[in-house]
Please model this.
Amino acid sequence: MRNRFDQQLHHLDEQLTHMGELCEIAISKVTQALKEGSAEQARIVVAEDEEIDQMEKEIERLCLKLLLQQQPVARDLRRISAALKMITDMERIGDQTSDIAEIIISAKYENVAQDIDLIGAMATGVSTMVRDSVVAYVEKDLELARKVMASDDKIDAYFDEIRDKMIAYIKAEHGEQGNRIFDLIMVTKYLERIGDHATNIAEWVEFSITGVHKDSAALHES
Model:
């Protein structure tokens, strides 16, 4: 019975890894679409979000099956509970890449990010956070999970720097570019939110390993 349960937990790891990879691919594709001003590529990102949504449903069913058909010990229960929380954040990451893609589709200009190299760096940073958070879960790597949490400060700093550059650009008598600047700020805001979701995933990884969630710990300390 335990061997069968362990096999199902391994399958859960594989499914989570695949869902994380889909999120990484979506971030990469939407970043490229932004750099190229490609509405066609952006439409692909929107269409492929359905696969991320479907993965959430499949993993949710697997987790509920494990909970209902087995009697998991506390450690396993934490892993399954964490997985249920993680897929919600990954699904929202898919939604936010689609939101970025929708901005690109509605834009009437090309190469919207040609003068904002930081956006590419920011996108790479959040993609790495997503990948590392899932790897930390599968490998039960507490140090890596905490590294992801620490990385969120860097993503926030990217957002602040890009926003400040955009505001300065408008002030420098480039008011005619207002819509373009607003779009870029919204793109970076969505990337910042993706970083927040990756941080959430890492916090649930920490819970699955230690039994303590950051929010609960803070509540007890207050």
